[in-house]
């Protein structure tokens, strides 16, 4: 590790290597920082290597370029790893808010390639290393959008439903193996980029959270991820749904005037 001294051996993640995708910002960056604090050797993967490297140097992790939509990039990333105990499939995003009648098929393609196929690529490539660890973890950062449909979010909800099904199917397939499959499904999370990428304007992005006193932030989700990964390995957190208190359901959000 560079940038910091090795953590004490009694921390929960000591001796374990965790890969975090989409680690240059938002939930991915917060997760990389939190897992480092828990003692994991963290490998950060993302496309924006400048941001990734700065974060890795600050927290004491290892930055590697990764585009989960590019098979060659995934292959090169995996080849650079000596061992993997944990894979956090965090890379994802929403890229439009159009109804199905006005579907932007490029946005649909991008949503599936990043959220679903990207997770499949990394999981498939790293399963041998996770098996070899003897106590592997595959964690998917899903969404409450993966369980409830709503207007103006078809491409994203469809993709996150795919992630939810992927996690459930993989858990069935690996039940006899020493690998846990975990899904963390956040509701409303305020990050710098998610709503902006989805709506296309700063004003529209701000409106998503308007009047909500305390939406979740990236660190809240990272806390849940770290908790799930540091349970004794016979304890499998199949699905953890986490929302801000102000959001009772996908369609029910308390907004103050």
Please provide a written account of the structure.
- The chain has 257 residues and is of the alpha/beta class.
- Strands 3-2-1-4-5-6-9 form a 7-stranded parallel beta sheet, sandwiched between helices. The protein has a two-stranded parallel ribbon with strand order 7-8. A two-stranded antiparallel sheet has the order 10-11.
- The model has no long low-confidence stretch (mean pLDDT 92).
- A hairpin with a 2-residue loop joins strand 10 (247-249) and strand 11 (252-253).
- It has 8 helices and 11 strands.
Sequence-ordered SSE layout with sheet pairings:
Elements: E1 17-21, H1 26-37, E2 41-46, H2 49-59, E3 62-65, H3 71-79, E4 86-89, H4 105-133, E5 136-141, H5 154-173, E6 179-186, E7 189-190, H6 194-199, H7 202-209, E8 216-217, H8 218-229, E9 239-242, E10 247-249, E11 252-253
Parallel strand pairs: 1-2, 1-4, 2-3, 4-5, 5-6, 6-9, 7-8
Antiparallel strand pairs: 10-11
Helix pairs in contact: 1-2, 1-8, 3-4, 4-5
Counting DSSP H or I runs of 4 or more residues, the number of helices is: 8
Strand order of the largest sheet: 3-2-1-4-5-6-9
Q: How would you sum up the global shape?
A: globular
Q: Which range does the strand content fall in?
A: 15-25%
What are the segments in which pLDDT stays under 50 over at least 5 consecutive residues? none
- Secondary-structure element order, N to C: EHEHEHEHEHEEHHEHEEE
Radius of gyration: 18 Å
> Span from first to last CA?
48 Å
């Amino acid at each position: 590790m560079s940038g910091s001294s090795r953590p004490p051996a009694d921390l929960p993640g000591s001796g374990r290597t965790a890969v975090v995708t989409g680690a240059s910002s938002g939930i991915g960056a917060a997760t990389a920082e939190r897992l480092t604090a828990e003692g994991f050797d963290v490998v950060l993967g993302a496309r924006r290597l400048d941001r990734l490297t700065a974060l890795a140097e600050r927290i004491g992790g290892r930055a590697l370029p990764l585009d989960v939509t590019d098979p060659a990039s995934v292959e090169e990333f995996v080849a650079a790893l000596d061992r993997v105990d944990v894979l956090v499939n965090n890379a994802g995003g929403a890229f439009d808010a159009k109804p199905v009648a006005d579907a932007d098929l490029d946005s649909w393609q991008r949503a599936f390639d990043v959220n679903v196929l990207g997770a499949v690529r990394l999981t498939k490539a790293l399963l041998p290393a996770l098996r070899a660890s003897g106590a592997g973890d595959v964690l998917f950062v899903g969404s409450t959008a993966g369980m409830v449909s709503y207007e103006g979010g078809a491409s994203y909800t469809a993709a996150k439903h795919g992630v939810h099904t992927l996690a459930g199917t993989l858990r069935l397939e690996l039940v006899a193996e020493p690998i846990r499959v975990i899904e963390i499904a956040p509701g409303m999370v305020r990050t710098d980029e998610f709503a902006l990428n989805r709506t296309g304007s700063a004003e529209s992005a701000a409106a998503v959270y308007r009047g909500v006193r305390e939406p979740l932030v990236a660190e809240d989700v990272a806390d849940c991820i770290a908790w799930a990964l540091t349970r004794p390995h016979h304890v499998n957190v199949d699905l953890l749904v986490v929302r801000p208190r102000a959001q009772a359901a996908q369609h029910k959000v308390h907004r103050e005037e």
